[in-house]
Amino acid sequence: MVPEEIPGGGASTGVASAPVVKVMGATGTATRRRPRAGSYGVVFGELPERRRADVGPAPERRPRRSLPPRTLAGDSARAHGTYVKYVVERCGCEPCRAANRDYERRRQRAMARPDELWLPYVPAGPARRHLAALARQGVGLKTVAKLTGLAHRALTKIVYGDAVRGMAPSKRVRSETLVAILGVQVDQAGGGQKVPAGQTWALLDELIAAGYTRSFLGAALGSRAKHPSLQIRRDQVRASTARAVEALHRRLIDQQAPPRRSRWSS
Fold first, then answer.
1. Rounded to whole angstroms, how far apart are CA atoms 215 and 263?
2. Which of 15, 79, 110, 124 has a CB 3.0–4.6 Å from the CB of 116, allowing a cystine?
3. Is 177 helix (H, G, I), strand (E, B) or coil?
4. What span, in angstroms and rounded, lies between the C-alpha atoms of 221 and 229?
5. What's the CA gap between 17 and 98, in Å, rounded?
6. Helix, strand, or coil here: 50?
């Protein structure tokens, strides 16, 4: 048998009908319809009969989690009278409520006025880079926390994340946190951090060229050795040592250096 397709077969029903196939055989001629590819009996805008029973009612929404009532929270790392104390610990004291009202007042004013911009969060990249630069000069996170008043845990999350909770370093920080971190400079910290020694040695070399001996300068810097000398590294020095050398240079540079004492002098 050789099938022969007859175009336009079938009655006109408003929907494209399947093509009619004419089959020629030895016993006669027979016709049958061949299904059109992609024709599944679906009417636009309606679901198929086999799926209508599968679709049930919309699932019920879970009830909203009720928050515990606000009480007077105890003392913790978060001080009273702050917005974070009001939100995280749900403190209901009057200073914390006042902090929340002030926050909402500033937020609503900034969003309503065209000349102000409400940006409670900013990218944490600049803060992280500044903390890394401070760390290279010996200013650690504990020192930054002491100078800025920020929590050491918050600074740790900015740099390292939270390994216990599997969290990456913070992507955003509050704008006031960024301003506080960027405001920390090396000279504001204590004397334990390390700073480059180039400027310190430039001042010492100037004093040595003016006639001051190393032993004299070592004693002037506080050395208690029997034979004092300059025990200062060439690459890095403590910030307290750098400041001491600067003060010594200002005091001695305009004075006459004492005469050198010979080893055999009485």
1. 13
2. 110
3. helix
4. 9
5. 74
6. helix
Q: pTM here? A: 0.46
Over the stretch 70-116, which tens digit does the pLDDT of each residue have?
888 888 878 899 888 898 888 989 999 999 999 899 888 887 877 76
Residue 32's φ and ψ, nearest 5 degrees, are -150, 155
Q: Please give the C-alpha separations between residue 25 and each of 20, 31, 32, 199, 263, in angstroms, as whole numbers.
A: 16, 11, 13, 107, 132
Token pair 């009480």 is found at 71
pLDDT at 58 over 90: no
Q: How many residues does the chain have?
A: 266
SS3 257: coil
Instruction: Return the structure tokens found at 19.
Output: 């093509």
What's the pLDDT tens digit per position in 191-233? 667 778 888 899 999 988 888 888 888 888 888 788 888 888 8
Question: What does the block give as tokens for 74?
Answer: 């105890």
Domain locations in the chain as residue ranges? 73-116, 121-188, 194-252
Model confidence at 10: pLDDT above 50: no
Identify the residue with better confidence: 54 or 154.
Answer: 154
- Is residue 266 scored above 50 in pLDDT? no
Question: Mean pLDDT over all residues of the chain?
Answer: 77
